[in-house]
Amino acid sequence: MVPRLADRAARALRVRPSRRLRLWLALVLVAAAACGGAGPKGSIGSPAADFSLTALDGSAVRLADYAGRIVILDFWATWCRPCQLEIPHFIALAAEYGGRGVAVIGVAINDREDNVRLFAERMRINYPTALGHDGLVEAYGGFNAIPTTFIIDPDGKIAARYTGYQDKQVFADVIEKLLPVVERTD
Quick count: other Cβ atoms within 10 Å of Cβ 87? Predict the structure, then answer.
């Protein structure tokens, strides 16, 4: 009889922290909404996380350096077939819109530098490409599928987020909607 009572007490203790955690989380979310919080990291409308990475050519890639521009931030890997299919879209978008206030940044994750370098050379990638890390993925809300692509507006907020292969026109449509904002600030 004593073991049963002890088991019940142990189960009761396990439930209580969970209830407290849910209540605390609910209060935090209500407080954030009341304060006009922008939403979870990596969500549409939230500020894009600043970062500093080293591109394959040795130059620094900092999101802050692209303030006032539309940025396509693509998380990808050389071993990812949908990523390989999207890269030509980004090459074309960088060539087509680069002079109009649009930048593309490629961030290879879960990959080796020599593989990324070889792939970038073979594909003739015409935009900064760097190796990312788990901290950067977390700063963008965490995700477990690639390609994951963010389009960041000229104010530094996430305007769109896509997971999985997308046709070039999907990105071009968002760019076209955001271009008037860039052109007004020029």
Answer: 23
Sign of CA dihedral 59, 64, 67, 71: positive
Q: What is the pTM of this model?
A: 0.77
Q: Residue 74: phi, psi to the nearest 5?
A: -110, 120
Which CA distances in Å does 97 have to 2, 19, 49, 59, 92?
74, 51, 23, 22, 8
- Give the up-direction half-sphere exposure of residue 63: CA atoms within 13 A in the CB hemisphere: 24
Name 105's Cβ contacts closer than 8 Å, sequence gap at least 6.
Answer: 61, 63, 66, 71, 72, 73, 74, 127, 128, 129, 130
Tokens 């896509």 belong to residue: 162
Report pLDDT digits (tens) over 4-20.
655 554 455 454 555 55
Q: Which of 16-20, 35-39, 57-61 has the lowest mean pLDDT?
A: 35-39
Q: What is the DSSP string of 124-174?
A: T--S-EEE--HHHHHHTT--SSS-EEEEE-TTSBEEEEEES---HHHHHHH
Rounded to whole angstroms, the Cα distance separating 71 from 141 reads 17
Q: What strands, in cross-sheet order, belong to the sheet with 70-76?
A: 129-131, 102-108, 70-76, 148-152, 158-163
The CATH homologous superfamily to which domain 52-185 belongs is Glutaredoxin (3.40.30.10)
Contact 62, 52 (CB under 8 A): yes
Count of C-beta atoms within a 10 Å radius of residue 54: 12
